[in-house]
Design brief:
This protein has 211 residues and is an alpha+beta fold. It has helices at 3-19, 108-121, 126-129, 199-206, and strands at residues 38-49, 57-66, 70-77, 81-86, 89-94, 97-103, 132-139, 142-149, 161-166, 170-176, 182-194. The protein has an 11-stranded antiparallel β-sheet. Strand 4 and strand 5 form a beta hairpin.
Length: 211
């Protein structure tokens, strides 16, 4: 797996953990918590700032987050790419054709990141606090979080800092990477549904079920 793809996988899992709107000690009163049988849908807009490029690389698409099953992250523009991350690993399709499949056993840190996801969904804030130093700043309308790795220069975690803000749900997150690279994601049109994933979505999630 290339370092870029691995970095994307780590970034996605951190986004998933932050998207899971459940906190043992919520940043502000009123933060929404996913319940059993619920899922979260929305759209995202991403700007990737890379060293040597004057303008950011932009992409957009949709996401589906299903507790205990995983994340379906569909990039629509500029290219159709679907990334699925679950307890069994990572799978990626480009224009409907599978290009990557990596079991969690080959990416040990992914298991820890997925545990962070599961923990936040069940209200276990310590799932993130065990890996990051967390500084929460309440605001008049929402909250800000700053997370920095407890272990600096960890090769398995190519993130220098995470900045996040939101209110009832996460609204924006910035992942600061080494050498000045950073990703900024904005989440739009988010809605919590009490429903099952559609058949195609369920098939994608099944691709990362533990075997």
């Amino acid at each position: 797996m290339t370092s870029r793809a691995w970095g994307f996988a780590v970034g996605c899992m951190l986004v998933v953990a932050m998207l899971a709107p459940a906190w043992a000690d919520p940043p502000v009163e009123g933060t929404i918590r996913l319940r059993e049988g619920q899922l979260l849908r929305g759209r995202f807009e991403q700007e990737r700032y890379l060293e040597g490029f004057q303008t950011p690389l932009k992409s957009s698409g949709t996401f589906l987050l299903v507790p205990e099953r995983g994340l379906v992250w569909r990039t629509e523009l500029p290219f159709a790419i679907t990334t699925v991350i679950g307890p069994g690993g990572l799978m990626q399709e480009v224009r409907g054709r599978e290009t990557t499949r990596i079991p969690a056993a080959k990416l040990p840190f992914m298991s820890k990141l997925y545990a962070m996801l599961s923990g936040t969904m069940t209200g276990d804030w310590s799932a993130l606090a065990s890996t990051f130093k967390v500084v929460r700043t309440p605001e008049a309308k929402g909250w800000n979080l700053r997370l920095t790795p407890l272990e600096a220069d960890d090769p398995n975690l190519p993130i220098q800092a995470i900045h996040a803000r939101g209110f009832r749900l996460l609204a924006e997150i910035e992942l600061v990477k080494p050498h000045g690279d950073r990703d900024r994601l904005v989440f739009l049109n988010q809605k919590i549904e009490t429903a099952q994933p559609a058949a195609q979505e369920a098939a994608l999630l099944a691709a990362t079920d533990p075997k």
